[in-house]
Amino acid sequence: MPAPCGLAAKAAISQPAPAAPRGSQPPRRRDGPEELHRMVGKRGTMMPPGRILLLVLVLLPPGPAAPSSSQPNATRFVCTEPTLRTFPAGLPRTTLSISVEFTALASLPPTALVPVPLLQELHLSSNRLATLPEALLRPVPALRVLDLTNNLLLDLPTDIFTGAPHLQHLVLRGNRLRALRPAWFQHLPLLLWLDLGANALAEVPPEAFHPLRSLRSLDLSHNLLAALPPGALAGLGALEQLDLEGNRLLTLPPAAFAPAPALRLLFLQDNELRELPLRIFLPLRHLRVLDLARNRLRALELPPRGPGPALELDISGNPWHCGCALRALLRSAAPLLSAAADTRCASPAHRRGQEVAALSGAGDTGCEHRGDGQHPPDP
């Protein structure tokens, strides 16, 4: 069996594969249009564009050191040795990518990256890191990808990312972060992908993400958010994907999405939303996927229809009021509507228990349009 640590001499920057064709029914988890789909693999993992993929050409014994003399032109170091407790030393100056994952690594010295000033990618997922030194990234100003998924991080130093102005992909998923520090994002104007999912965040400070003017994907899923401040998305004019799944949201500010008119994918499933403000989706003329499954919604106003593909909408698992307005919504959303078979009407009384998905084919008795274009009161 080959050793789990090694250097590779000849690396190639991979080109991402094209996105898989989209079906007529949206899956539970959508990865987005091609330009976003190519950046994400399975849920909880990330495969950003430009990740270095290659075979390990030189296998080294597992341990803390990787002698540079054996491969003076090496560009990637990979180690998944479960017993590794110290960050590898002696890496070649030419190293562009380091992957130390699924090990027992619990700490990093401030000078860990000094020997590799050309580093572009650092993958440290599934270790035991509880803290990071503030100066860790200063020796690697060209860093583009930092993956810290599934560690034990409770907090990060205020200036941890100051020395990495070219960072494009930052993954902090699956840690124990309880608070967001706006200072983290002050010097990341090129960041495209930010994953803060599966932490313990209870709030988003207003305008915390304001400096991230290039950000295209923001994942805040599976945290403890009960509300969003009105300025939570301020500055995110380029944002295309927003994931708020699995929080505790009761409602949203009326202008919550106004700062992010480029949104294409919006995930709000598995919250506690009881109602949404009128016209909340009005700014989202490019929206293509909206997931509202398993909330407590009784009514819904659709986003405006624009040119291009129809909206993919999931309304499963809500206690809908199955009146005229909902029937009109269902007809306009079909055929890309997803409503699980167990999604049933909660009201009015004569429709209680009926499947919501069947309403789009129901007759219009009592729901004829008035001359002013409005529906009569729901029967």
From TrEMBL:
Residues 318-368 form the LRRCT domain. One of its GO terms (cellular component) is plasma membrane. PROSITE patterns: LRR (PS51450). Gene3D superfamilies: Ribonuclease Inhibitor (3.80.10.10). Residues 1-34, 356-379 are annotated as: Disordered. The keyword Repeat applies. Residues 366-379 have a biased composition (Basic and acidic residues). Keywords: Leucine-rich repeat, Repeat, Signal. The keyword Transport does not apply. This is LRRCT domain-containing protein. One of its GO terms (biological process) is long-term memory. Residues 8-21 have a biased composition (Low complexity).
